[in-house]
From TrEMBL:
Natural source organism: Vibrio qinghaiensis
Residue span, FAD-binding domain: 5-326
Functional pathway: Cofactor biosynthesis; ubiquinone biosynthesis
Similarity comment: family membership: Belongs to the UbiH/COQ6 family.
GO molecular function, one term: 2-polyprenylphenol 6-hydroxylase activity
Database matches in NCBIfam families: PRK08850.1, Ubi-OHases
Protein name stated in the entry: FAD-dependent 2-octaprenylphenol hydroxylase
Stored InterPro entries: FAD-bd (IPR002938), FAD/NAD-bd_sf (IPR036188), Ubi_Hdrlase_CS (IPR018168), UbiH/COQ6 (IPR010971), UbiH/COQ6_monooxygenase (IPR051205)
GO biological process: ubiquinone biosynthetic process
Length: 409
């Protein structure tokens, strides 16, 4: 059976669903292909995969109608941030009060963001969801693209969007080259109960082995940790008993929140930078991790992907209103230039930050200490850093700006 649509979004995760939701006021016919059906049940324990949603992401999710579905489940606003280096005077603090903001962002489980967006997309008459369904083949012609699915169905579309993650099937099918390197670290993630309350403060300590972040959860004594360390060490930490792990974690975090006790599973995944040579080809566009992955140092990966979705939607809506072909490469160049530039800037910033804080060289430690001191005390420097962390700087799509009319109450 052959079905004709305007856009096929391969990947029904956070970014793919955000793109579909951002096109809700158009007459574009959209198909979303996702290999797994997300569980609608909310587990008692939070997931270990979380994101630090920036202010611009919050504004975007409000505009998409998904924000209430997030905060009604489980979301933790954080109002302050502390960053320091082990055995050094390097330290900087930020607070929402300094920025006249209600908070600096929200820590949210990825699955909750996905569910809240799915609820919105399910209401859209212009979207057909294929879940659970896998893609089998992709062919691209001059005027359209063809996709075959494992349920025997075939789709034709003006545009295929790869929103299918770091190991993107769409990107691989199109042989799009990657610039990539291994950061030489794995990220160990877990939920941790602390003796002292986190006071809605996100904390990160830089150690010679790598950064360790504690992200506050809705329970005042629960934090989600992201521990970047050498892969063999990450595996050793995973293999430790809970008692041994807790002892090492508490010491690594300078006893800042008292005794730390891991709750539930521990997991680790390799950290790699990826940057696709092309974010767009004829009839093809890439968004989110399919186009780029960055170091989780500042928690900007999901925010970057959501802005991809909003930016591509803005370009596609403009083309649709003008009666233009949404899949022509020349019409997708604007999106590609826009988002490649923003992703490259973020990758460069994260790499520079990582390089600066890596190692125990005394000269580097001195530079780091002076740099943090200046960032915290030079007029305007701290504000500039925080505006970027809040996602309020840069070339933002309209959906991520407060000027939008259709905000949730």
């Amino acid at each position: 059976m052959m079905q004709s649509v305007d856009i096929v979004i391969v990947g029904g995760g956070m970014v793919g669903l955000a793109l579909a939701a951002a096109l809700k006021h158009s007459e574009l016919r959209i198909a979303v292909i996702e290999g797994r059906v997300p569980s609608l049940e909310l587990a008692e324990l939070p997931d270990v995969r979380v994101s630090a949603l920036s202010r611009s992401s919050e504004i975007m999710l409000r505009n998409l109608g998904a924000w209430q579905g997030i905060i009604s489940r489980r979301a933790a606003p954080y109002s302050a941030m502390e960053v320091w280096e082990r055995d050094s005077f390097a330290r900087i603090e930020f607070s929402a009060n300094q920025m006249t903001q209600p908070d600096l962002g929200h820590i949210v489980e990825n699955r909750i963001i996905q569910l809240a967006l799915l609820e919105q997309v399910q209401k859209q008459a212009n979207v057909t969801l294929f879940m659970p369904t896998q893609c089998q083949s992709l062919a691209v012609g001059e005027g359209e693209a063809w996709l075959t699915l494992d349920n025997g169905q075939s789709l034709t579309a003006k545009l295929i969007v790869g929103a299918d993650g770091a190991n993107s099937w769409v990107r691989q099918q199109q042989d799009i080259p990657l610039t990539h390197w291994d950061y030489g670290h794995s990220a160990l993630v877990a939920n941790v109960r602390t003796a002292e309350p986190h006071q809605s403060t996100a904390r990160q300590v830089f150690t010679p082995q790598g950064p360790l972040a504690f992200l506050p959860m809705s329970d005042p004594h629960m934090s989600s940790i992201v521990w970047s360390t050498e892969p063999n060490r990450a595996q050793r930490l995973l293999s430790l008993s809970e008692l041994e792990f807790n002892k090492i974690l508490t010491a690594e975090f300078d006893h800042r929140l008292g005794l730390c006790e891991v709750v539930g599973e521990r997991a680790a995944f390799p950290l790699k930078m990826r940057y696709a040579r092309d974010f767009a080809l004829q009839r093809i566009a890439l968004v989110g991790d399919a186009a780029h992955t960055i170091h989780p140092l500042a928690g900007q990966g999901v925010n970057l992907g959501l802005l991809d979705a909003a930016s591509l939607a803005q370009e596609l809506l403009a083309l649709w209103h003008q009666g233009e072909d949404i899949g022509l490469l020349k019409n997708l160049r604007g999106y590609e230039r826009w988002r490649k530039t923003e992703a490259a800037k973020m990758i460069a910033a994260m790499q520079g930050f990582k390089d600066l804080f890596e190692g125990d060289n005394p000269a580097k430690k001195l530079i780091r200490g002076i740099g943090m001191h200046l960032a915290g005390h030079l007029p305007g420097a701290k504000d500039e850093i925080m505006k970027r962390a809040l996602g309020l700087k840069g070339d933002l799509p309209d959906l991520a700006k407060r000027k939008m009319v259709l905000l949730e109450p």
